[in-house]
Amino acid sequence: MSLHALLAVIRLRWYVAAVVILATAVAGWHVRHPKPTFVGTCVVVLVPPADPTAPNKLAAVTASIATAGYLVDLAVSDSSQAGALRRAGVVGDYAVTPNNNGTAETPQYDLPSEVLTVQTGDPTTAVSGVTALKSEYARRFDAIQAADGVPAAQRITTEVLVPPAAEQVLGSKSRAVIGVGVLGIGATVLLPIWFDRWAARRGRRGFAFLHRRTTTRKAV
């Protein structure tokens, strides 16, 4: 299709292009003024049973405890547990993941600490949600050990390493606006063509008619 024919179709189906432009403007405004999002974060450490030979209660930390913590992560993160977590006060999107004590290039998860996060649109609920998640994580860790018959004095316990706190998530608004603009430009060009061809197939005055008329004029 030539540029002249393309512009002719867009002029003919100007109302389609107008709707696309309006939708693009609305979408651009929303991405430029997004609803605030907050992430509540808490880090807990898994503490081994007290060892009289080790004054430092963290001295006996081993990768096996970290593995046990990861298994609890999987149990808490299972979709079948969502209802129970909601009833316990966990709101928004939540996640429990091992704390990376290595680097981005060489991650390590051999220290038994877990990162708990809850994402909501309010800082207060983000903090309360991650606090509830922390309590539920500790309760389930203890319940698993109790089910295995581990005496209370010999169980692994959890302690807060980084207390619950909320932080606002700030994305790149400029990139989002540019993305919406590019999509809008493409839709402004393509949708009128699609609509015109659809209308032509339905027997309405469309691109096929316009093309025939242009051809006739050239022949004359």
Helical amount: 40-55%
Can you tell me the overall shape?
elongated
Outline the biggest β-sheet: 4 strands, antiparallel
Per DSSP, what share of the residues sits in E-state strands of 2 or more residues?
15-25%
Structure annotation, total helices: 7
Question: Which runs of at least 5 residues are low in confidence (pLDDT < 50)?
Answer: 205-210, 212-220
Order of secondary-structure elements: HHEHHEEHEHH
Mean pLDDT: 79
Strand order of the largest sheet: 2-3-1-4
Number of strands: 4
Oligomer: single chain
Based on secondary structure, the structural category is: alpha+beta
Measure the end-to-end span. 21 Å
Radius of gyration: 30 Å
Give a written overview of the molecule.
By secondary structure, the chain is α+β, with helices and mostly antiparallel strands. The protein has seven helices and four strands, in the order ααβααββαβαα. It has a four-stranded antiparallel sheet with strand order 2-3-1-4, with helices on one face. The protein is elongated and about 85 Å long.
Task: Provide the descriptors you would attach to this structure in a database record.
220 residues; alpha+beta; 4 strands
What layout of secondary structure does this protein have?
Elements: H1 3-12, H2 14-32, E1 38-47, H3 63-77, H4 82-87, E2 93-98, E3 113-120, H5 123-147, E4 157-168, H6 173-201, H7 207-219
Antiparallel strand pairs: 1-3, 1-4, 2-3
Short description:
The chain has 220 residues and is α+β, with helices and mostly antiparallel strands.
